[in-house]
Amino acid sequence: MITVVGMGAGAPVDERCADGAELVVGGRRHLDAVRLPEGAERVVLGPLAPALDTVGEYVAGERPVVVLASGDPGFFGIVRALAERFGPERLDVRPGVSSVAAAFARAGLTWDDAVVVSAHGRDPRTAVHLCRAHPKVAVLTGPGAGPAELGAALRDTARVLVVASALGSAGERVERVTPAEAAVRDWGTAVSVVLCLDEARALGPVRTVAGGMVRPAGWALDEAEFEHRDSMITKFEVRALALARLGPRPGELVWDVGAGSGSVAVECARLGAAVTAVEKAPDGVERIRANAAAHGVDVRVVHGTAPKALSGLGEDPDAVFVGGGGRELPAVVAACARRARRTVVVALAALDRVPAARAALTDAGFTCDGVLLQSSRLAPLPGDVTRLAAANPVFLLWGVRPPALDEGVSQ
């Protein structure tokens, strides 16, 4: 058997936990915290592959192994690699308190409604967008994705960062800082986890299902669910297909350009994406904010006119929805296509604008498709009868960026 012992964030681990082992594997501080059996080989964890090879030699000889890990080794930890290599039936896992659980405990908060994301050895943009979209996020940090980098990316938000360092040790430190304060600090290498909190929403309702990304009960909501002006809103039939083509998902960034009432922006946020809405009308900006608040989501609203306003939005989006029209539409679509990582969806009512919008997508290297949506809704008539009331037809175009040539190729 391979005994996997979690240690560090909770109660002290028995220093005799390695008794009987012929091989003990772990970080240097973990190895120094236990009593090693006489004659046992000691492997300090660095690169994982050589350590697993050594474990494999002992397992093949049916010789006992103890692996020491931080916190709960089954939570973003070494249990996955050990189970994949040797099979879960060979593992005797003895979890400690995870750094995430310990950090929330130090902050005095429950975490059954928290989103947990690992930025260790991964692109930090996923963690940043989850922090923008959700009120309670725990980020497992790593080189290049620590409190300073998170703070720099979240400067324009009202979030609070709780930085927990060296949890469970004599040097434990838990600090509450603003993103701007975090961005200018040198945090060293002892950071265990960063909590990103929207304090106005951090104490959420009692949950029956754990996790911060509960799927909404429905989407393509009725127009009556949003405040809008003179029916200037993307109708739910159009919104349904637009959402399907946008594919908003947790950890991604979506732009809603020419957002109007913000119905598309709000729906993308309800599906877990971080969202920026661009709107030129001052009353439209306030309307978007009101609709986001009414649906309990966080939408960053930028007052400005595209395409000029797009240059100040910072990071490139994964997907973009372009609404509205006007002579500037081709230039707006082209600007969005230059920035979008995955897809651009355009809704337009004027037939004359379709060729130019399509050309803007194809000229940017996107594959383009589209459809004319025509719908008729049931409408009551006197005498307890029903007629069909036709809605204005809308063109929906979508461009998809082709995958990179080396994407999906085995290394």
Oligomer: single chain
Structural class: alpha/beta
Proportion of residues in helical segments: 25-40%
Choose one word for the global shape.
Answer: elongated
Report the mean per-residue pLDDT as an integer.
91
Task: Quote the beta fraction.
Answer: 25-35%
The count of β-strands is 19
Strand order of the largest sheet: 13-12-11-14-15-19-16
Distance N to C terminus? 33 Å
Main pleated sheet:
7 strands, mixed
Write a brief caption for the model.
The chain is an alpha/beta fold and 411 residues long. 27% of the residues lie in helices and 25% in strands.
Descriptive overview:
The structure is a single chain. The chain has helices spanning 28-32, 48-60, 79-86, 99-107, 125-133, 147-153, 179-183, 236-246, 263-270, 282-294, 329-339, 354-363, and strands at residues 2-7, 23-26, 41-44, 65-70, 91-94, 115-118, 136-140, 160-165, 173-177, 191-197, 253-257, 274-279, 299-303, 319-322, 343-348, 367-373, 376-381, 385-390, 394-400. The protein is α/β, with parallel strands linked by helices. A 7-stranded mixed sheet has the order 13-12-11-14-15-19-16, with helices on both faces. A 5-stranded parallel sheet has the order 3-2-4-1-5. Helix 11 packs parallel to helix 12. The radius of gyration is 26 Å and the shape is elongated. The two termini are 33 Å apart. Mean pLDDT is 91; it is low at 406-411.
